[in-house]
Design brief:
nine-stranded mixed sheet; 9 strands; 41% helix
Length: 293
Amino acid sequence: PHITVLMGTRNGSAFLRQQLASLAAQDHPDWSLWISDDGSTDSTWAQIHAFAENQPNPVVLLHGPTRGMAANYLGLLCHPDLPPGPVAFADQDDLWLPTHLRRGLRALAHDPAPAAGRVYCAHRMLLRPAQPPRPMPWRGGNRAGFRNALVECLTPGSGLMLDAAATALARQAGPVDVPFWDWWLYLLLTGSGVQVLQDARPGLLYRAHAGNHLGPRAGLRAALWRVNRLRDGSYRGWMCRNITALETNMAHLTPRNRTILRQVLSLDPRQRLRHLSTHRHWLRDRLALWLAA
């Protein structure tokens, strides 16, 4: 099937050309690219125009809302002219492996399909300067689900694909004020009964560099960064914004998940962290959240 690739950009000229080339090299040829640029001041626009001129596939370039990455991606996903059908999300600084789109679409198309839809997430290889690519820690298994989504995101946006049903559901919810667009989609869609498919085989190279949106991704610096987000209240604030947005979309949730959400809402912030800490994927993260509470 045709798939629409959604990419948010902002001053991405250092890496964008390589990512666009990896998209053009996909062995699934039937795609179009929609880009929302959030106020770039470098050569991002020039690179996109040059790519579009030499590319037979449609390329649509839009002005973003300039209110941050989450608003940029959710505004693009909910654009009124976006064609129906499955979507794949792309970061401006990653590199896709040639089979990424085909593997994702094949997974989404398996019968029987759940009525609420499916989400596919590819595993990622970490790409760092002057180092060979290596697999990032695998966070698959049976923990993916609504309770887990209340405390973390197991479907990073750079490898995320939604089938037509899941895309339509996300568009119905519309743009919301949340800290991270991929975490929000994971939360909304698992709460609505969408099936999550996690592929243990890598589909892309995640580029680690100084400008990454969520700080360092590996090693001691990454661990300290996460601890500091617990200490300074950032993590608690992220959870509260997610839950507030979810309250306004209560009608999309399954009856069981509405009950779970109401239970969480009845707790104060400290009790909430302690109650949900058992649903994080890694044991160290469960312990850290419990201690933070």
